[in-house]
Amino acid sequence: MNWQAKDHELIWHPYQAHSAAPTNRVIVKGQGSLLYDLEGRSYIDAISSWWVNLHGHCHPALSAAIARQSNELEQVIFARHTHKPAVQLAERLLGLFPYLGKIFYSDNGSTAVEVALKMCMQYHAHHGHERNQFIVLSDSYHGDTFGAMSVSARSLFTHHFERHLFQVLHMPGPDDPAHLIEAFETACKRQDIAGFIYEPCIQGSAGMKMYAPELLEQLLQIAKSNGVLLIADEVMTGFGRTETLFVSEQMPTKPDIVCLSKGLTGGYMPFGATLASNEMYAAFAVEDMTKTLFHGHSYTGNALACAVALASLDELQKPECFEQRRMIAQSHASFASVLSALPSVRNVRQKGTILAWDIHQEISGYRSPIRERIISFYAEAGILIRPLGNTVYLLPPYCINAQELAQLYQVTLEFLETL
Ligand SMILES: Cc1ncc(COP(=O)(O)O)c(C=O)c1O
Predict the structure, then answer these.
(1) CATH number of the structural domain spanning residue 96
(2) Atom of ligand 1 nearest to the CA of 234
(3) Same domain assignment for residues 295 and 327
(4) Is the pTM above the cut of 0.90?
């Protein structure tokens, strides 16, 4: 049996129903915005490999940073120990969030959220307050671990575990602002609310649903004025996907906690970070062991991840990268106006480097059967895409060039013609 067949026999892949035949594409190489399969066919990575890649695959500077670090220190226990890349990264990241003062490292987006929820609950407990409820927006998604699932929408993803999830207050969605604000104000006035966790301005997994910074600002102000802590989950939106490095820059009211992952290492390594305010940290900083934040993963503060994250930040902050993001955004905006005129397309939306649209279908949402057709059509045309049901989106690495973007748009039009 060749190793390809063994993949099917041995590996349980994520978010994938079992099937009789092996269907997983073998990728042997990545270069810039392209991935290459076993037969040498190339695919434009139009979704940055699940929203993680920033500067392209096998980026020389990022690869070199990992190689360098791997010859000095790859990993050390992060309790009572530290290392230079961890401190340098903390300084760089906190410099981007001047209102936050401490960083807690973990492994991925879900764990970054778990840490945030624990910080928030324990913060209130240390102040002697019985505040342990969270407010979430309808259709939110914050990860697959139990705490993260609890603060996410109840859905296909969570229904087998619902009994075991802690209760949260689900608000109406941002597409119904009047009801949302009314319900939100009422919820924030309750005395048991610990925090509001939100995906700022783009609910990614819900189908790249976008909402205005002005609406979010209104919610943040209501929450703040009622003593509700703010957790910005920038796992998907962070590191330049939108007009700013982080969406939280677009609202005057700032969060108490920010969760980061995905683009944190430029797409090279699993890594997560939870950034907290000094006020939050101060509630834990006492000589009382019961007031410790009892949380830590074996690979917390991994030195390779810190080193590559630093190299990725260097790239991200170069004027060339900013220029690329601007070029992608402008290019998306022009194509958005073409798409909006087509009868089979609904709700074209764009924020920075993210462009999304819905294909008009009888069955919409995650289970829409058109999804498989879209995936195959684009794959045949050399494009890796992963629609959210009948929602198609483009979220490319920043190194993508104008020709590759034009190919994404052209194939999109060709697909729409088949409908
Ligand atoms: C907003 C948001 N938060 C958290 C997560 C979970 O991240 P991870 O898959 O790294 O656990 C995701 C993943 O898509 C996400 O989009």
Answers:
(1) 3.40.640.10
(2) 1
(3) no
(4) yes
Helix (H) or strand (E) holding 374: helix 370-380
Which residues have CB under 6 Å of ligand 1? 108-110, 113, 141-143, 199, 204-205, 233, 235-236, 261
HSE on the CB side for 222, CA within 13 Å? 20
Nearest CA to ligand 1 atom 7: 109
- Residues paired with residue 43 on neighbouring β-strands, in sequence order: 35
- Residues in Cβ contact with 109 at an 8 Å cutoff, skipping those fewer than 6 apart: 142, 143, 148, 233, 235, 236, 259, 261, 262, 272
Residue 86 sits in the same domain as residue 52? no
Distances (CA, A) of 11 to 6, 39, 384: 8, 22, 21
Ligand 1 centroid to residue 81 C-alpha, Å = 28
Reported as type and span, the H/E element at residue 392 is strand 391-394
Residue where a domain terminates, one of 285, 316, 347: 316
- In this predicted model, what pLDDT tens digit does every residue of 29-78 receive, in sequence order? 999 999 999 999 999 999 999 999 999 999 999 999 999 999 999 999 99
Contact 228, 253 (CB under 8 A): no
Q: Do both 289 and 198 map to the same domain?
A: yes
Residues 220 and 345 occupy one common structural domain:
no
The protein residue whose alpha carbon is closest to atom 16 in ligand 1 is: 236
Residues 45 and 152 in one domain: no
Q: Which residue's CA lies nearest to atom 2 of ligand 1?
A: 142
Any idea what the CATH number is for the domain that residue 19 is in? 3.90.1150.10
Range of the domain at 14: 3-58+319-417
Among 316, 344, 369, give the residue marking a domain's end. Answer: 316
Judgement on whether residues 188 and 246 belong to the same structural domain of the protein: yes
* Ramachandran area for residue 24 (φ above 0: left; ψ -120 to 50: alpha; else beta): beta
Dist. CA 230–CA 218, nearest whole Å? 13
Whole-Å CA distances, 308 to 70, 312, 348, 369: 11, 6, 35, 39
How far does residue 272's CA lie from ligand 1's centre (Å)?
10
CA of 364 to the centre of ligand 1 (A): 23
50 and 78 within one domain = no
Residues 286, 380, single domain; the answer is: no
> Ligand 1 pocket test: which of 142, 144, 366 has the largest number of ligand atoms within 8 Å of its C-beta?
142
> Which pLDDT band holds residue 21 (cuts at 50, 70, 90)?
low
* Cβ pair 144, 106 in contact under 8 A: no
